[in-house]
Amino acid sequence: MKATYDIKAAQDKWRPVWEKLDPFRAKDDGSAERRYALTMYPYPSGDLHMGHGEVFALHDVLARYWRFRGYDVLNPIGWDSFGLPAENAAIRNNEHPATYTYANIETQAESIRRYGMSFDWSRRLHTSDPDYYRWQQWMFLRFYEKGLAHRKASWVNWCPNDQTVLANEQVVQGECERCGATVTKRELTQWYFKITDYAQRLLDDMDQLGRWPEPILTAQRNWIGRSEGAYIDFPVEGPNGERRAPVRVFTTRPDTLFGATFFVVAADARLAAELCTDEQRSAYEAYLEKVKQETEVDRLAVDRKKTGVFLGVHATNPATGERIPVYAADYVLADYGTGAIMAVPGQDQRDWDFAEAFDLPIVRTVQPPDDFDGEAYVGEGPAINSANDEISLDGMAVDEAKAAITEWLEKKQAGEGAVTYRMRDWLISRQRYWGCPIPIVHCEACGEVPVPDDQLPVELPDLRGHDLAPKGVSPLAAASEWVNVDCPKCGGKAKRDTDTMDTFVDSSWYFLRYCNPHYEDGPFDPEAVRRWMPADNYFGGAEHAVLHLLYFRFFIKVLHDLGMLDFVEPTLSLVNQGQVINQGARMSKSRGNGVDLGEQIDNFGVDAVRLTMVFASPPEDDIDWADVSPQGSVRFLQRAWRLAHDVAGEPGVDPVTGDVSLRQVTHRTVHDAAELIDSFRFNVMLARIMELVNATRKAVDSGCGPADPAVREAAETVAVLLSLVAPYTAEEMWEHLGHEPTVANADWPEVDPELLVQESITAVVQVQGKLRAKLEVSPDITDVDLERLALADANVQRAVGDREVHRVIVRAPKLVNVVVG
RNA sequence: GCCCCCGUAGACCAAUCGGCAGAGUCGCCGCUCUUAAACAGCGGUCAGUGUGGGUUCGAGUCCCACCGGGGGCACCA
Asked: Which end of chain A is more exposed for a tag (fewer CB within 10 A), N or C?
């Protein structure tokens, strides 16, 4: 029976020691360069799950590594503790959401501690604490003063299950991102943050995000959806020829203006109702009623027939002077561009479909290729049918024609070049209880009145259980004592705003608060933030690509513009960990393939689970738990530990007299591990540690023996490197090797550059690209010498035979390639 | 439909600048230990890189097309 250690005993033994020594508290005293290691804070739903296990294990490698390298590391943890699951649980169990929330936080905190994370617990925060959301209300008021938070009436996404509105970002394929219910539309007055004002800067500043994953940047670019084109004004006249106010459209194809044969307004846009004549009123209203019934899913269905209704008025095409009919239809969106389009069936398939359904004329203004047999032609080609008395586009390429017609429109004051974005403003109102109240009072006399700063926080009233049952309006509306207040301005009768903020507002600034979480003079301590931000790395899931990861960028830009920050991006480095799946599929109750983190830890120990998480794949790849072997991780950790057990030399011995070949492996491993961590290749780093363990084992058993100073050096190196991933095992090793706890305070092994230099290197010799010989050469051999050696080699000469040597490519000291005729 | 990422042993994954396809792990096979088995240890095993072209002295790596998987956007004018 080989010597082993008991991981469970080690877990119980070291936790109190670490908590006493508390080595991971950020010093923030200027004694070392600062690094901010940020990881997405958890939502307190039950205990930690496998996903937390992965992201925490990965994040901790980096945080512990930076500390080893002498940085003063800020590695905080907190909880995203407002949100619907707690509220729904409270309704079910007739209790207060706080009860469920804070109980889960304690459960998770305990699990995180057991998991051996190097967090600085002194900075812990919860977004549901009044101390936290107070400052969110304060920032909301600053946004409000700048016109960046405002109320407007609009058709909004409504989740009939959660009984609340949703932001565009929270609707995925027409379904609620949270609960999966089919989203419907409602016309409501809601609070918005004007993220659209920042669309261009959100795009431009991506240049700074050099260490963000490309897929996230692409997703954000798609989401923002920048389009270049032009606004064009169309004069409108009523049924008897009376002139009406002109209507502006946005188009990306101003070059096709001559082909605009009709005009469409979004059915649900106010403009449609305004344009509609009395004769067409009932037809329009019937149509609008039908449109309103449609869900988002219906609307997005493919191969949908085009529908619409004539509004009784005509527009005039400013290029052709022709009267064209104006329709209302649901294929035009009210809140994109101007809510109205010029329809060019010749160059747009949607318009083509509508033209066919309503028997409208089709004029091509771009010449399709001879072999084109489709309907609308959207490709490149020379303009045709595009001339009037003042301008002719005929013969021009698309880009040239766009520029020419835009210039003409601008000269005629009938339009202008323009850019629009697909992204909409961020809808932040939620008709639910467990969130940050919006600090606005609605006064009968004064209208919207901000709650004065000195009356913050607006705390949530004490509601629980059935008080919180969804009724389509916020549960806060029923708390009459809370709702009815005196107007802060005139003292008259007023009511509090009863909506709460989207919890993505909470997560847009928590990392600023971490820098000094007990700061009392503002949402964050500007000096502390200057010292720590932007975060040096952020670990978290890719599911937030166009949610949190967009919102927090927006928030930082606004705070910058408010003069509160001197940077414009929250972090320049982001890593998205993959998901932990099982048997090729996401874990779920219905599949019955769930894996419980706690059970895995009970079976294999914390260290083996963490090691498995880090070793299984590159951080950004999914881990299929069916493909990995926590038992193999246990085996490796025992092997590593056994090295410490076998070391026979005394502590403090100078390793220089030790076995050189083992020392070379040790030093090479330390050197490479640093580079691998810097490039987030943690799985490869672990492979290198395993290699070192194997080499040391060999040295002990059949090499220099357990008493050689190089063996001690190697074992100590393994302990330090391994502590990044397996802190309990590393601590056991460190103690066994005769050192005081904690290994976290050990010095990062210094690399001796001389031990990285190899005395000889294997050069390969190819003939016609095929391997023919290997030569042991000095690493600093010259091209000339290497070529001579290679050509003299018997195998090479045989491969060359009597053919003529045309060319010899030499890449000393690694390779020679002989090209023969 | 448009855009992005990824395809390497039975599985998970390595392979700095284009330069010997294999570091590590799992699995499997054999041996050692054991009364036996498990555990553990030691040794071994298998691919020419999704397919087809191209560039190059040389391609897993660069380029093009296609196939397969994952993701984003999508009636956005």
From this structure: N
